[in-house]
Amino acid sequence: MPVYASRAWITRNYKGLQDKIQLVPIDLWKRPAWYKEKVYPENKVPALEHNNVVIGDSLDVVKYIDNNFEGPSLLPNDPAKREFVEELLAYTDKFVGAVYARLRGGGDAWI
Ligand SMILES: N[C@@H](CCC(=O)N[C@@H](CS)C(=O)NCC(=O)O)C(=O)O
């Protein structure tokens, strides 16, 4: 499972939402046309469709699931700790992006 989709999947499982959020796996090497046309025009994974609205970008999906579904909260209540979490998330997002860019042969995507 791609790393970006993994964090949405982990969120779903951590919150015990296996029966509420259905997984629709797609082959990234042979992406079906319907995904781009009808679900997520950016054609990236993951995306979440809920109440006829599509949320893309894994961090937004993670936050959406955390805020709109039941289950244990992913974020601490303390605002200072929440801020720290946001910082960590932003950092890991940059880090993973840089690793991917490097693996794809890009040279200028260091943190
Ligand atoms: N910032 C996006 C990145 C998502 C992403 O790049 N997903 C990859 C799979 S790991 C993808 O679908 N790539 C297709 C493409 O770039 O065309 C997120 O966090 O969801």
TrEMBL record:
Matching SUPFAM superfamilies: Thioredoxin-like (SSF52833)
Source organism of the structure: Stephania yunnanensis
PROSITE patterns in alphabetical order: GST_NTER
GO MF annotations, alphabetized: glutathione transferase activity
Lineage: Eukaryota, Viridiplantae, Streptophyta, Embryophyta, Tracheophyta
InterPro entries (alphabetical): Glutathione_S-Trfase_N (IPR004045), GSTL1/2/3 (IPR044629), Thioredoxin-like_sf (IPR036249)
Domain (GST N-terminal) ranges: 1-73
The protein, known as: GST N-terminal domain-containing protein
